[in-house]
Each structure stands twice: as C-alpha cells, then as structure tokens.
Design brief:
The complex is a heterodimer. Chain A is an all-alpha fold. Chain A has one domain: Formate dehydrogenase/DMSO reductase fold, CATH 1.20.1630. In chain A, helix 4 crosses helix 14. Chain B folds into four domains: 278 residues, Rossmann fold; 144 residues, 3-Layer(aba) Sandwich (Dimethylsulfoxide Reductase, domain 2), CATH 3.40.228.10; 131 residues, Beta Barrel (Barwin-like endoglucanases), CATH 2.40.40.20; 267 residues, Alpha-Beta Plaits (2-Layer Sandwich). Helix content of chain B is 26%, strand content 19%. Chain B is globular, with a radius of gyration of 27 Å. Chain B has a seven-stranded mixed sheet, with helices on both faces. A six-stranded mixed barrel of chain B has the order 19-23-20-22-21-24. The chains are: A mainly alpha, B alpha/beta. The interface between A and B is large, with 50 and 58 residues.
Amino acid sequence: MEPETPRTQRVPASGGALLAPGHTYGSVTDKISAIVLTRGTRKGWWFGFLITFALVMMLNYALASVVIRGVGLFGINIPVGWGFAIVNFVWWIGIGHAGTLISAFLLLMRQKWRTSINRFAEAMTIFAVSCAGLFPLIHLGRPWLFYWLLPYPDTMGVWPQFRSPLVWDVFAVSTYATVSVLFWFVGLIPDLATLRDRARNRLAQIGYGIFAMGWRGSAVHWARYEMASLLLAGLATPLVVSVHTVVSFDFAIAIVPGWHSTIFPPYFVAGAIYSGFAMVMTLAIPLRKYYGLEDFVTMRHLDNMAKMLLATGLIVAYGYMMETFMAYYSGNAYDRTMIVNRMTGPYWPLYWFLILCNIVIPLTFLWSPRIRRSVRALFVISLVVQVGMWLERFIIVVTSLDRDFVPSSWRMYYPTGWDWMTFIGSIGLFLTLFYLFIRYLPMISIFEMRELVHKTAEEATGS
Amino acid sequence: MGESEGNRTAGAASAALAGLTACTKLPTEKIVPYAGEEPEEFIPGKPLFYATAMTLGGIAKGVLAESHMGRPTKIEGNPDHPASLGATDVFGQASVLDLYDPDRSQVVIYDGHISDWSDLLVVVAEKRSEWAASKGTGLYLLTETVTSPTLADQMRVLLEQFPLARWHQYEPWGGDRALEGARLAFGEDVNTVYKFDRADVILSLDADFLCSGPGCLRYARDFADRRRVTGPDSTMNRLYVVESSVSGTGSIADHSWPLRPSAIESFARAIAAGLGLKPAGAPSSLPGVLPEWIAALVRDLENHRGASIVIAGGGQPPIVHALAHAMNQALGNIGRTVVYTAPVEASPTNQMQSLVELVRDIEARRAQTLIILGGNPVYTAPADLDFGSSLEKVPLRIHLGLYEDETAELCQWHIPEAHYLEAWGDARAYDGTASIAQPLIAPLYNGKSAHEVMAALVGQPGRVGHDIVRDYWSRKNLAADFEQLWEKSLNDGFIAGTKLEPKVVTVKPEFLAAPPAATALTDLDVTFRPDPAVWDGRFANNSWLQELPRPFTKLTWDNAILISPALGKRLGVTSANDETTDVVELTYEGGKVQGLGLIVPGHPEDSVTVHFGYGRTRAGRVGTGHGFNAYSIWRSGTGGFGTRAVLAKTGMRARPATTQQHHAIEQESEAGFKRHIIQRATLAEFIKNPNFASKGEAARMNPPPFSLYPELPHNGHAWGMAVDLSCCVGCNACVTACRSENNVPVVGKDEVMRGREMDWLRVDTYYEGPPENPRVYNQPVFCMHCENAPCEVVCPVGATVHSPEGLNEMVYNRCVGTRYCSNNCPYKVRRFNFKLYADFTTPSLFAMRNPSVTVRSRGVMEKCTYCVQRINVAKIQAEEETREVKDGEILTACQQACPTQALVFGDIHDPESRVSKLKRQSRNYGLLTDLNTRPRTTYLARLRNPNPEIKE
C-alpha cells in the first residue's frame, strides 16, 4: 500500500476525494442521522431483514439440535476431527480483522480515509467475532462444559492445560471481542449523543440517552474521549496481529502435516486482513448505493481498499508458494504427500478453485486502476475473495487431516446438512445484526465526518 | 459408572425391554469356579471365573466365563482346554452379548400367541401315546451337529422307544466334504487331528485352518510356536497355501497362490502325482502356478517326511480331502503330524444328504411331527430344497431356538432356547475331549436346553439339564469317586481322559484312479463361505460381530461379492473417491443376488466369493435387512463352490461400510511401506542382516531420543507392549475381546460409513506387490502410549495425561470433546463419542458390562488404556501379598484372546520380562518414531520363510 500523504488528498478529482465537495457540518449530520431517525423503516430493509432473520431461526434450530443430539450431526469423523465448525470459526474471525485494522491501526497511522468506513467496519468486526465465537463452543463434544477452558478458581484445584493452543485461543479471542466492543462503543458515544439530541421520539431519546452516558460535548469530554480512543486503538492494534497468530497456532503447534508450519502466523494474519477487506467492500458497496452515501464512501475509499486487497493477496499467494516449496525443499515425506494430496487428491477441485479465487482472479484484475474504480467489478472480486478464503480454511483444516500419517486411517470428510445450516445460519446472524445496526445506529461516524469537513475545508483554504 | 446410570434410566426403558430385571440369579445347582478355592460369599468387585464350553458347529472350545456378582461379563479362553490353550475366537468373545440380547425369544409361542412350557408338555404327552402306538411313525427330529454324549444318549433312548422315528442333522457349513473325503480315503468315518507343533512344511489346500474350524485356536498356537523367531539362529516352519478366496491363513503364508476353487483339485492331483501317488488326470501345469513351483513344493514336502502336513479345506470336495489323506500317508505323516481318531460327532452324517432326505419324506407326507432342536433351516437350507414351503406341510412343527427366527415363524410351537451360559450341557472338542458346560446364570428368559426338550420327548418331563447331564456321566463309571470327578471336571472345564485315542487307518488307493471332475476353466467360479463374523447367520443379531471389520475387506454390517482386481477391471467395477462401489449381480444356477462388488487384492481371478449369514428377514432388530442372502443361490449339490456363474454390473452404486478406505488401498499400502509402518524381510534376509528393521534406510525412523525437557526419573513399572507381526493372522479375536472388556459401544452401519467406528484396536491390512497376488500384512494398531504423547500437549483441559508408569490416560469426566488430541495423534487410535453410542436404555445390557470400566457417554474421547483396570487389579493383589507384580500376571484383553500370542504386554523396566526380551530383539521397531513420539507399543518386523527355490 502506498503511503497516503496530504498532498494526494488535495487532488480535486472526484475519484480521489475522501468527501464529496460542498458538505458542511450540518449536511453531514443531517444526512447520516436521517438514516436512523427520520427516514423510517423501508420495505427493502424489511425484506432483507426478514430473510436473514429466517436464517437466524434456522441457525437456532441447528444449534439446538447439535447441543441436544451431539456433534455427530456434523460430518466430522476420525481422522477428520475438525470440520465446518473450525473452518467457519477461522473464516469469521479473519473477517473481523479488517475492522480492527481500519479502526485502530489506521487511526494510529493517521490515515484519514478510514473515517467514513471505520464505524461499520468495526461493527462488522464485532458481528464477525460473535459468529466466530459460536463455532468453537458448539463443536465441543460437551459444549455445556466450555468454561473448563477458563482459568477460574475451581474447588478441585483444576486448571486449564496451558500448553494447549486452544487455551491461548480462549484468551486471544475473548480479549479481542472485549477490546473491539469497547472501542466501538466508545467511538459511538458522541454520535449517540447527537442522535439523542435530534430524536423526536421519546423512546429513542431515552434509549440513545442512556447509551450516550451523559455526553455533552464539552472540551473535557472531547479530551478524555481522544485519550480513551487512542489508548484503545493502542490496545487493539497489536490484536490485529496477535489474534490470528494465536488462531494459527491451533494448527501450527500440532504435528499434522499441513498444519505444522512456521509460516502460519503471518500467512494467517495476511489472509485475515484479505478476507476482512473483502467483507468491508462487500458491505460498503451496496450500503453507499442504497443509502446514497456515495459522497462519504467515495471511489477513493474503494480504490484504497482494493489496494489493500492486492497487497494482502500477494502475501497470501507468497504463503501458498512457500508452503508448497517448503514441502518439497524440506524433504519431509509427510509434507510432500500432503501437498500432492491437496493438489491431486480427492479434494483437488477445491484446492484449484481456491487458487482461482484467492490468487488468479484478484491478483490479475486488481492491478488495473480501471477495475479498481469499477464498483461492480470490485463487488464481484470481494465476493470471490471471501469464497476463496473460506476454501483456504477448508483446505487447511480438512485436507491435512484426511490423509495424515498412518495410511490405513485415511478417510474422506463430507459436510452434512447440519454443517451447512450452521454455516449459512451464521451468515444470516451476521447480516441480521448488520441490518439492525444500520437501522438503529449511525453507520458512519458523524463527528469524525464533521472533523473531515473541517480538515478538508482547512486544507482547501490553506492551499 | 454405568450401573447407577443404568438403574436411573431403567425406569424410562420401554416395556418391551423390561422383561429382564437388573436382578439376575445363579443357577440353582452347584457350579464350580475355575482354578481356585470357592469363596464363601461373593466379594463385590472381585470376579470369579467358571470353566465351561461353547460350541460352534456342535464342537466345543473350552472357555472361562468371568462372573461379576453372578453376571457373566466376559469370555476368556480356558488355558487348560486343548482346543483353546487360553485363546478365544471372535464368536466366543461375542457370545456374552448373545446371552443378554434383548431380542432373544423370551416365551413359549404357540400359533403366534404366548403359551407356556406346561402346555407344550401336555401336547407332547398326548403325542407320546400316539407314537407309542405307531412306534414313532411320522416323528422326525432335526438337530444341528451333535457331539454331546448326553444328547446322543437321549436320542438313543428316544429311538429305542420309537424305533420308526427319524433323526436328521443339518448345518449349512458342517463337515460333509471332510466326512465324505475320509470315507473315500479310508472307507470309514474318522476325525483328523493335526499336530502343527511337529510340522515344518505345511501345504493348505484351501484350508483356513488358522482362523476357522473347531481346532483353529490350537492350530494357530501350535503353528505360531514354530515360527517365533528370537534371533538369526531361529528357524521357521514354512506354509504353502493355495486358496480360492482370501483368508488369515493365506495372509501369514510364506507362499500363497490364489487359485479358482475348481482348480484346487487339479493342484492337489499335481502334488499327489509329484509325491508318487499316481492319481488320474494330474495336470502338468496350472494357470498362476508354475510347474517348477510345484516341483519345488513337492521336494520341500519330501524333504520333511513325517514333519509335514497336507490339509484340505472344508469347502473343497471329498476327493481333495481324500488326496490330502493319501499325501499325508505317502509322506509318512500319519501318526506323527496327522492323527486319526474316531469321529467326534455322535452320529457322523452327510448333513446335506440328511436334509434332502428329510424334505423328500416331508413331500411324501411321511412326516407328521417335526421337532427342530436348534438351527434355522428355513433360512440356511439351499434354495433348491425350498425347505420353508416343505416345512409347512408337516402337521406339527416344534422349534427350539435362541431367536424367533425364520424357522420359528413357520412352526406352530417355538420354545426359547437357553444360551450356553444358562444351561447345563456337554460337548466334545476337535480332539474328542469332552467338556461339561456349566451355566453361570439361571436362564434369563426361562429358556430350555435341547436336553430338557429331549427329556420331555422320552417321557421324563420336568427333568432339569443338570440332572440329565450328571446322570449320563455318572453312569459312565469313569472314576471311583464320581462326585470328585464331577467337581474336577467342572473346575477344569473338561473331563480328563476323554480325548479320543488315535486310530490306525490306511488309505485305500482305489479312489486315485477315478477321473477328475470335468472342469471348464473358462467360466466363473463362485466360492461360498460362512461369514467371518456372523458365520452361517446365527450371529446376525450380534452387533459386536456385525460391526467387526471383516479381515481384508474391513467391511461391516454387510456381505459383499468379493472380486479379484483383474476381474474388476474387466467388468469395470470400481471403487471411487466418494467411497461408493459398484453393485453387481451374481447369477448362479438360475438364482440371482445383488451385492456390493468389493475388489480384494489376492483374490483368484476367475472366481468370486460370497458369504452366508446375510439377507436375514427375522434376525432381530440388529440383524434383519442387511446384505444379500447367499443361500438363495446355493444349491444342495453345490458344496463349497460352484462353477458357471455369471457376474454383471447393475449400474447402481452403493457405499460399503468399511473401516479402511477401499479406493485408495494401493496408495495407502505404498505410503505404509515408505513410512516404514510395516517392516518386513525374509528369514534369509534377516539372517544376513538382523538389524534390517533399525539400520540402513530404516534408521531414519529411529532417531536418538531427543527432548527439551530432562528425562523423567524412571521408578517402578513401565508398561509396554510388543507385537510380533510374524504371528498375526488377522483373526480379529483381539478386537472383539477389547470391545467386550472395555465396554466399547457399537455405532451402527451409518456411523461406520461416516468413519466413526469405536474399536480401540484395529487390524490394518497392507498389500505389497502385484494386486493379483500381493503379500498381505496384518497389523494390529492400538494406543501406542507414547512417552512424548502429541495428544497430551494439545488438550486444553488436561483430560489426557501421562501416568508415572507410562500410560497415556484418558480422564473421561474431564473431557469436553475438542477432538484436538485425535487430530494430533499420528496413529489415529483415538475414538470419539460423536453421538450417544453407549446403550443407556436397554436393561439387559447393563448386566453385561464390565463394572470396572466406565461406560462412556456422548461427547468424550476414548482409546486403548492397556486395560488399566487389569493392571490395577494385579497391582492391588501384589500389594496385598507384599510382592511385586509378576511378569505375565497382567494380560491385556487383546493379548489374552490372541490365538498366536502375537501380543505381549509387560513391564519394560524388568529386563527379564517377556516384553523386554522381545523389545531387545533386533526386529523390534516403533511406528513413526521419526516424530519423536517414543511409543511404548512396538512391533517385531514381519518375517517370511519362502522357499529359496521358488522365485515369485
């Protein structure tokens, strides 16, 4: 990614601006708060919401069935002890990473282009982590005992087994979820106050009022807000790297060929950001269209995100190359068999489809500025990358286990209807939460947009 | 533990299953525990063992039944019994489940309604007066093979009372062809006993003598004892096998040649000719077996005169048996390695002929009453006899059986039969040794034994089995003090001195001149065999046996049409990545069956194998509706194989429930050898390079132990195991023993297809060489109890931990079920309760379980524990007696069952223990030791002893 300098921000071309010209503090506030307060609930919203809500009901049904009847409903077996649940967990948690990267890392880097996308990217993080969190729980044989993974004072004096990466996972993911929620909520407070003040409806006034926590916009409030948000950004930034590193340890610590690899942490983090930016793009493109937010989420944003995709996609491609090369170069017979199995074994179509989705399509087209400025092309590419990243997790989890050390135990894994129901249901849950979010909360940070108006104006007059 | 769990759920169990209460009763008569002073009372938690005998095909194998508080829970071999020497087969191990099977018939049935034994006695009494008048005209009895002296005596009494009554015997897989073969060779009925402990060269003509038959446990032991290699100066016997299907015996053979079943007679003739017997029509060459191989084999036999054995298989026609007898005589083996005795059967009968005669009499309306004592002839009779519709022409039909099966359905009266663990009885073993079978438990469902039914028929209604058997033996005047003899016999499990004496017989060579059966070697043969697990169908409702992966095919819950790779290629039968295989149709003598076409490396090219025992329609909830019924194409004249069969693809595909993937078997085997999972050599190679399993290319697999952590101090015991691959015949006794000992649940066909079988112990098969005739390697695999166990590090809750004695232990109640341990286990020996597999609702099964082993619930991981409960019992015992645990005192369940003693468990800290000595052998190697797992279970490389003159 090329560094963003103030110089490039001054380029007046519409594709290059972070905010369409002509906006004032009032117009920004009106436009964004209106979506929540005055526009009302549209048919299109209801349509989408009801579909995704139905998927949540399906998810509930599937989860209840799995808890009541056992994880045997899934397609897992011996040797493939982990299936869709872990694939989905890694996929969702990866998607969340882009949100944190945008809201925290780019904040510290003082990248102003993050402003208009950071709120919903951060919301996406929280919803993705919620979806991710479901899966390790329900994939347990006895999910009601999940708390045994926590180090709580037990009368028997029993502790978790700290050498297991799954315990690290518990800490990593719960820390991540906590910090993300805090960061998101703290960032919402000034906007909640705005909504409280603008709401005409008593219920809304009370509701937003409670969560605005008495924000009056005084200079002291702003000073404390800035400090808190900086600190939280400082806390969240290492999490961008650490969470998926720890998730990758679930695999890298094991001795399974195809998992036991030092390349996993950077490769997983890059993949996470890759899929995360793809998801942000998938969400941003329809949102800006249906809510008329093209002024705030400009082509410039999309272009930048496409560049992020390109950069992380290249890292991911390097990861695949190294994985294959090391299997050959190490001379390790197990690793060689594993790679050959991935490429030519029973799951070969999935492997090559993954290469197509993650490498061939994005890395061919995203070099072209024309493509990067085509909303439709970007939307398609963002979906392709998400499919590819899901397949990558499938390939890593399943095609390492299906044929490992003792050939007599080699066995295929086939997902069942319950696997699909939990997977598709989790997408439904994610979208349902997102529908609620765009309906009841400002999807773009109002006060940060006002800052942007100020800065844009300053820069315009300063030049 | 399951007991309290069981009681809690018992109330919720359905009324249909509630016939059995948790309260079981001992037999009312005195029973005598094995090898010990009788305790004054039961000590809770301390099992007692009782010697008794289980019969299959009428012939007994001695067993010890473990009894917990009066409940039989486990079957072991009787170390003193000549047919067992402590080992058991799969049927013996699984028989305890039959005892508690809730599907067993529980009441006397008349005309489909619940009746009573006393009602039947009234009918019998009426009939007896009719028979007294008619001298028994129209009274027909049909039994299975009878070796029981008591039952034979009762039959004698009956036939004295009613001289015109007729006794028929029928079992689908009896010894008809061996019997006729002996008649052909000697002109009289004899029983053949082989002394494999004295044989150096063995030729098997389609005989699976190590895994099947009444003497197989003893034979396997004697055979293995002559090929236990301790060092380069050891010797091995040499086994040649020609076989028409695949078998355990073939897999351990030094030379195994697949031959279509109809060609084995020619092969036998060729060998006989080589030995100078001049049989008619000896061929000069055979497809697949080079003339110089035959010459070399003949030379090898001749060089071991008096120390060789030629043995013919039960599926081969009488002439092959007769030729084998003649060859043994020509080789001077008779009296040395082959001993003849009087028959062990009370009345040796060609049973197929007997059944044919019975049907003929029924059709001629001569039969007025047919009493069927055991067996299921409606299901097992060959198709052309259509026994079912004949049976219905008999006015009065009475059936005694364990199940309300196909035969019971067509009889007016059905009497529930007492299981052998519930009834007094007696039977002879393969060598004639008679056993008293004592019950361990009073009949759970008021079942009756054949003796008790016979007593009613001879006019002694109400006599109980104990009195009948005891009276018979007391009349024999075997000892001055009968009481003492009786108690000793019950204690020992057999009656001393009842082994049959060798008999001098001479082969009458006339049969050699008869021309061979005309065989066209161009069409397709079909080999019929009893299933390796459900046998002739009698064990179809036994879920342990249903779920037992069959040797080589690893098929469960089904039978299949076994096809050679070449024939499969010709027909286009394939196993695909999606694990489906072609459904094929076999046509033989106008009958058709459809079944899974399974390609089996090493199967003879122009033949297929089908197994009996499937396609049951009234087996019970477990056994009904699986597979196809091979009896439906079997003819009364077919014998062990038929010719001129036709095989065709149906175009349909189906998934076999196999535990080893079929489509990838070649790829798997290749990887298995590359990874040194199987180490093997010939005896000659081993003598030249005794360290082949640990040096050279294999050295990579044995890196020096390396750890970042300091070595743990080693005090006390260090448990370990060694498995001699040169002895394993893949008979599966260990697998079933483990299931029984450790309360391992069955999961059912669908779950096996999903890859969720629960066996803690599996026998893997690897093939080396051309698929037409590969070398076959069996490898039992269970938890390796790694010193650096990969499973332990990754468990987030510490549910799998290491014991100070080196056991890798599972703490079931701590397990939350992440399955990470299994993913990280390179040996894939961990098993997960994906669903609630253990049966917590069937009350009768609560009593069966081993009370020392937790019944695992849903969502927890489990695996081999080295039978930790047995280790602890021995340690406590030793501590009570203030001594050390002795070597050999602890036998794991698999080890105890193993007929060849291929598995040895013990303390590897004790340099004198058997396991330490085995592990010191140069053949010792570990699996995947390059992963630095340091497994406690190791293997001794497989050795073969091929004839150097035969270059295959």
